[in-house]
Amino acid sequence: MKEQKYSTLFQKPGRRTRIIRCIYVVGFMDLFGVSMIIPLLSHHVKALGASPTVAGIVGSTYGILQLFSSTVVGSWSDVVGRQYSLLTCLLLSAVGYGLLGLSTSITLFVLARIPVGLFKHSLSICRALLSDLVSESERPLVMGHFNAASSVGFILGPVVGGYLTEHEGGFYKSSFTCAAIFVLNAGLVWMLPWNQTLVHRNTSTSNNTSKYCNDNHCGKSVSNGSQVNSHHTKPGSRVAGKHTGGLRWTDMSLFQPVWRQLSSVGSRIYMVASSDMWDLFLVRLLMAIAIMLYYSNFSLAMEERFSLKPKVTGYLISYSSTLGALAGFLVGPVTQLYRNNMPALLLHSTMLTCLLIFLYAAAPSVWQVLLTSTFFAISTTIGRTCVTDLELQRGGVQASGTLIGAGQSVTAVGRILAPLLSGLAQEFSPCGPPSLGVVLALADSKRESSVEVRSELRQFISFPQC
């Protein structure tokens, strides 16, 4: 029988609810500000005199930096605590977007993208923070709501950015507005009652608190992403509830020796790299590439296959994005329907995604495309949440920053590979990219079926210990 004793935070649901809602606001404002800038970047860099090749190289700078920094910053948030890491990322991102508003040359533009590429991980840290705040059964619901709030910001941001662009110096106004939004976000994070909130969970027989360390022959008790102490445990054993109570978030020090921070970050990344998480990372990679291939040439395919004008295609994309945001609210009810069996839910959502991509590639009319895009937005939203939840289930919430950061690095690899694969597939047919996406989704489903089997075996083996 599994029993859990929660800390002061969990005994005061009103306070916890207020903090979670504040994190929703942070996620909304984050993507609202970012989406004001994204559609304008390519136009601005070309206006600075960059050739298409140079513009492409400059545009890839952000993705490359994100690839290498996601895991490092996520692990750093486990070491120094969520408050300090989140504030640092928000403020340095604000500096980057402010410099973007001052960029009058390609050199300044590239320099402005460096702090953003290195430290724009506020959403990942917010997800790690939410995993600290809620129990495992609540996590899919809360993550779904957070993704929905963030997606709404991503939908509304381009509208405001487009409006500002119509005025003189519109790009610079949008950049400074985005920087101001990140400063406001940092102020909101600073005002949260960190000194009154305890997130450390005292557990008597918890199935999750030691999974990450047990898989790596190392048990480390972590509170708010900051290492408290360590216990050496045998593989398959569980950490007993011998903790000394909750640890305040304000007890975490950003100013501990740099060598100690680097050592802790390196050890956490090594433990993830040497763990059995790679099958889940492969699932995430295949899923990311399949989804990106679906959207990669969507506008061009609609024009060539059905002679749709870009304006109508834009309406279709906006419709799909809106459904994707609303689908975040369905994650909680659907996981309850599956009784929190996330491997099964991920398998079924991926099989549905595979079928929908196939129907889109073979669609004889626009109405079938509209129908497939409706369910595609829902299935992919649920699939992304499932993958994140499975990573945290297997790895353990005490290393949530490292795990979520590693997942973002894997997604960044997908962003690099997808355009290349899409270009090669388009040489054969406008339906080439989604057809390739079907193949990858099928491979993803096969990989997920093995993940589900292993998950059931884990539950069977651990049952006698409960």
TrEMBL record:
One of its GO terms (molecular function) is transmembrane transporter activity. The chain crosses the membrane at residues 21-41, 53-74, 86-112, 146-165, 171-192, 277-295, 315-332, 344-363. SUPFAM superfamilies: MFS general substrate transporter (SSF103473). Residues 19-466 form the Major facilitator superfamily (MFS) profile domain. It comes from the Eukaryota. This is Major facilitator superfamily domain containing 9. It is found in: Membrane. It is a multi-pass membrane protein. It comes from Mastacembelus armatus (zig-zag eel). CDD domains: MFS_MFSD9. The keyword Transport applies. The keyword Nucleotidyltransferase does not apply. Belongs to the major facilitator superfamily. GO terms for cellular component: membrane. PROSITE patterns: MFS. Keywords: Membrane, Transmembrane, Transmembrane helix, Transport. Its main location: membrane.
